[in-house]
Every structure is written in C-alpha cells, then in structure tokens.
Design a protein that fits this description.
The chain is mostly helical. It contains eleven helices and no strands. It has two domains: about 30 residues; about 200 residues, MetI-like fold.
C-alpha cells in the first residue's frame, strides 16, 4: 500500500533545512578539530618519545633477518628439515611449560580470591564507610600499578629462584587488576535485593553473599578466565628473572644466540597459549550466554 507524504510549504521548510545544515556543519567542525588535536598530540608524543620513522625504516632489515636466523639450525639447514634436532629439548621444555601454566593457574585463583574479598569493601554502593573504601582502593591500585616482573624480582631476591616468586608476583598483580574489575561490576548491580535483605535485618555479609554476588557471579568468573589467559603469557615473561617456568630457558637461549632453541620454545609457547585462549574463551562465552538467557 502506497502512502503519500505531504511536503510542507517552502516557507516552512527553508528554516528547517538551514538549521539542519548548520548543525551538520557544526558536527563537521567538531570532528575536524578533534582530529587535529589528536594529530598534534600524536606529533608531540612522537617527539617526546624520540620516535624516528627513518631509523625504523633503516633498521627493519635487522628485525626480519633475526627471524630468518630463528628458522635455521646450527648446520645452516631449515628447522623443519630435522624436527628431532629442532626439538631436542622437548621433554624439558614441556615440563617447564607445564610449570608456567601451573604458575599462571595458581596465581590467577589466588589473585581472584583476594580480588573478590576486596571488591565489596571497595564498592561505593556496598561500603558506606569512606575510610575503608579509600584504603582498599589504594591497596588494589598499588598491586596493579607495580609490574608483575618487578614483584618477581623482589620475591626472587627474598625467596630465591623457582616457581614461588612467580606465583606471588602474579597473584599480587592479578588481585589488583581483577579487584578493579570486580569492584566496577558490583557498583552496577540492582540494589533492590540488597535493600530487601537489609530491611529484614540481614548483616552486611549477608547482603553481599545473597543479594550482590549472585547478580555478578558469571561476570566474575568470566573476568577470571580472561585474566588466566593474560597470566599464561605473563608467566613466561617473569621467568626471565628466574621466577620459574620456561622463561628462564628462553632468555638463556636468546642471550647465547641459540636461534633454533628460541624458535622451538616460542612455537611451543604460542601453541599452548592458543589452546588455553580457545578453551577459556569458549567457556567465557557460554557463561555469558547462560547469564543472558537467565
């Protein structure tokens, strides 16, 4: 069925078109101004950070040639021509890679538990005492502001080489990062169940346990799984300072120019991270789908 739309007279239409043109022009000016400010900030940042595109262009060959050396054995042959020689340390590297994954797993669980304990006291809608909220928030900021590799160096000096410093370092940093995310999730809950439990005389812990936590549990688990993916990669890096895992063997191979060993370990790390990312990502999507359906 065709419907005719009546057009207003030209005298009434002209002011509307003029106002529309002015509004569109104002938006274009704002866009151009914003892009100009971003470009100026980028230029200033590049100067301050001493970013030199010419140097990047001149040295890019060193980058590509290094990767070419990673794909060669000591004999000069390509690594895939002799897989047995390429992965000569497979048993040791697999054990160290498993240790890396376990470090990330334990650190994630420990950090998530600490973040969960601190999230409610740090939430504005659940904790009314400002001094408690301020203190917990500053502690979480400290934990996530200090890089985990710095924590690892400190704990290595205190406890010696091994997995324990790595677990402690990553757990501290994870607690700060997840604490921030958990707090923001709790601050966006529906407060009516909380007020209902409070009206019946329920304690603060009861309000958190029975009213707040059920609303955000799937989100907390999802963030924890996402952090586990990050920690698996991070556990490799903190191994550079002797905090356990495959990172120590990897940095040793890099320093001694054992190119084929570096590429073999990198391939194992990439494969492991890909598998963990796919599994945890699938689980996270299922949890979010369950929450949406409910």
């Amino acid at each position: 069925m065709t419907r005719l739309v009546s057009m207003p007279p030209a005298a009434q239409l002209a002011p509307l078109l003029t106002a529309y043109s002015q509004a569109a022009a104002a938006k274009r000016r704002q866009l151009v101004l914003g892009l100009a400010l971003v470009a100026i900030a980028l230029a200033i940042s590049a100067v301050g950070a001493e970013v030199r595109p010419v140097t990047l262009w001149n040295k890019i060959g060193n980058f590509t040639s290094y990767f070419d050396r990673l794909l060669k054995l000591d004999s000069g042959m390509r690594v895939w021509t002799d897989p047995q020689e390429w992965f000569w340390g497979l048993a040791r590297w697999s054990r160290l890679l498993g240790e890396t994954a376990l470090i990330a797993y334990i650190a994630t669980l420990t950090g998530a538990f600490a973040a969960f304990i601190c999230a409610a006291p740090a939430s504005r809608n659940l904790m009314r005492y400002a001094p408690v909220r301020f203190t917990v928030r500053r502690v979480l900021e400290f934990c996530r502001s200090v890089p985990d590799i710095v924590f690892a160096m400190i704990f290595v000096a205190a406890f010696g080489l091994g997995a324990l410093p790595g677990v402690l370092a990553m757990a501290l940093h994870t607690s700060g990062a997840l604490g921030k995310l958990f707090t923001e999730v709790l601050e966006n809950i529906d407060m009516r169940p909380v007020e209902g439990i409070a009206a019946t005389g329920g304690s603060w812990l009861a309000q958190v346990r029975f009213a707040a936590t059920p609303q955000v549990l799937s989100n907390l688990v999802s963030y924890t799984l996402l952090r586990f993916e990050v920690n698996v990669r991070g556990a490799t890096v903190i191994g550079f300072v002797g905090a356990g895992g495959i990172g120590q063997d990897l940095i040793t191979a890099i320093r001694k120019f054992y190119y084929s060993d570096v590429s073999a370990m990198l391939l194992m790390i990439i494969g492991t991270v890909m598998v963990i990312d796919m599994l945890s990502g699938s689980l996270r999507h299922r949890l979010l789908a369950m929450e949406t359906a409910s």
